[in-house]
Write a structure and sequence with these properties.
The chain has about 80 residues and is mainly α. It has 3 helices and no strands. It is elongated.
Length: about 80
Amino acid sequence: MQELGGLAERYRVSSATILRWALRALGNHVERNEGRLVLPLDFGDTAVDKAAKKPGRRSTATGQAEAPPVKAAKKRGR
């Protein structure tokens, strides 16, 4: 919970937003691995990594990269 709160404060978003980003990243990871959860988790070149490399995407207060919106995972029919 402390880590979650720290991330939320760092990126100036709610804890729910951090959880949403994490779940979307996990969903994308599973999708890239043909529907399997492959451990250890390797998010590789994520949207956050890309945002940190782009000029003008830095938070003025913290100096940390701002996380961009994450695409929603595809819904699968049952």
